[in-house]
């Protein structure tokens, strides 16, 4: 089905390709085949100027790419840079741009300072996983996948350093988006929502946001407690071993030592389960809380677009009134100027209306795509999570069944 | 009647039909628990063949203390006193529930209330069990079962609080406190001639510190398990609200969430909760009980050590008396009595300690086996439910 476009060296700018890409989109964008992995975190440099470099590997049959299997090295600010470019290009026309992972000063400082302990390893792993999910979500978007910045990010061996990442952080973008929300609140005319769909959806996302935050907090609690359980189980195992040593009845002593071993193995199970709790459940929810902020941002951009259109209309109205007044004065130059301005404003009003209709159309499509993906995502994660729980239970059965004869052997 | 499997900590009790004791009922008024002590007996020393009396925790303590203070029982291991009923944890939860009522949905509130009631019930069952075992240890002991105060405890149909006050005034708990602070030092310092006691001393002192540590760690572990069970409750309540929000357009996710939420509520919460309390009953309670029992064994060693010290002192006094030529017969009498006391203590002590070991091993075996079987059972149940869930979800 794919025409191999690699023959066209600057194919990305050819209008022919845009048309082609549009067809692809309408035929159902699920027929994409691309998988991205972020791996091999490597510390580059020393001291406070040090940074982590990640290997970004793309495996794909999508014809847009020059190869089917390739990798590049990227650092965290590169990801932020990519996101800021995409946000500036697509947010204001109604596309839901997946937010990049959060910056973490504390986490990174520990890594820079060279603390090779468990918590900094966990931090790096957490970030690696988040970056991977971010890229996958970005390329799953049929429009974003074709963006030249995305292609360059995945393919180019050299990438110009993203500057001023302070402003480019997700938080920075969100601040920008929130400013749009503030502007909406300060709107001169309250938008008369003729389309109930938008009102309904906005309410839905507000509610969803609140629920997901609550759920996220609960799951974070669960992760914390499961980690505690792991620690306490390990401590109990040690104390059981010591009790077994102290016990003078031989068979009972052996059984107690076996109990200690079982509990040690169970401690490892709890640790693994805590990881599953975290990566399959907690991080998923965290991602969606941030994604929904982006969705809300897109709705606000629509309001801003509407406001711009209304402002142009109001300005046009004023100019028309001014024109009417000037008709009765003898100022031909001024009259002509006003007539010119009116012409320009008429054009602006028309454009404003077109923009508003376009963004409304785009948002409808985007929301539908977003919800469809969300359902798939949640369902997949839930199944994976349940499978992790099944595995834990299987192991528990194995361990306790092995212990039972030992306990029965006490006489 | 409480189910058989709850009477788990000690074994081979309540087998002798001549004196059968149980606590079939208990009332909880605020923090005060009123136990109904029911006795069935063929012994003529009792006025009736079957009777019940209401007793409070303080009455049990009174009985225990009078037994400890009785000289004649110095050579016996006095069963450890049952701990005070502790409703701290459910009470704290109830407080939290009251505070959070405003922020919770009705469903969340009802669910938490149910869990709270279940926990209350669990604490309740535990305290009844522990008080019952105490009485049954006494009734199955050849010497202690005949104690006069024990009989009064079982039979006296009036309030025991008057007697309790008198006893406190008489002894003032002085002896008990003395035992607690001095036992380790004195027991360790005794020059032992008897191999059996030397071994027992070394073993009990070491074992006590190890079992105390293990009990503390087991308690922490089961508390963590309970926390997780509570987390699952909260999760299922939130998932419920979330699934209500999802629009009917996306039936799939609503179905998914409802399934997930049901699963969490029904299986994980109940099973995790049950794992937490079964584990607690079998393991933690076992360790806790035997920690106290070993303390009682240590008390026996202490009393014997005291008797030995007394005997050695009486020897010295006799020598001094002989040297001075004064009060010799008195000193001889005293020395003879001390030796007799020491020998009686040693003889009964040996028997008690041997029985104790046997009892301990049997109890550990029973509880460890039952615990392992329960863990397997719960894990299998969990797995079946989980796999059912996965099938339903994947099929959609």
From TrEMBL, chain A:
Classification via Pfam families: PX, Vps5
Name where it's found. Answer: Cell projection, Lamellipodium; Early endosome membrane
Alphabetically, the GO molecular function entries are: phosphatidylinositol binding
Give the PX domain ranges: 32-161
> Does the keyword section mention Membrane?
yes
**What PANTHER family does the record point to?**
SORTING NEXIN, SORTING NEXIN-2
Q: What is this protein called?
A: Sorting nexin-2
Which organism does this record belong to? Oryzias sinensis
The taxonomic lineage of its organism, from the top, reads: Eukaryota, Metazoa, Chordata, Craniata, Vertebrata
TrEMBL record, chain B:
One Gene Ontology cellular component annotation held by this UniProt entry = endosome
Q: Name one GO biological process term.
A: retrograde transport, endosome to Golgi
Record key words, sorted? Protein transport, Transport
> Which residue positions does the secretion signal occupy?
none
Q: Does the keyword Protein transport apply?
A: yes
Q: Does the keyword Protein transport apply?
A: yes
Q: Which domain of life is it from?
A: Eukaryota
> GO: which molecular function terms?
dynactin binding; phosphatidylinositol binding
What PROSITE patterns does this protein map onto?
Answer: PX (PS50195)
Q: Where is the PX domain?
A: 1-160
Short name of one Pfam family: PX
Q: Which PANTHER family match?
A: SORTING NEXIN FAMILY MEMBER, SORTING NEXIN-5
> What family is this protein classified in?
Belongs to the sorting nexin family.
Function text: Involved in several stages of intracellular trafficking.
Tell me what this protein is called: Sorting nexin
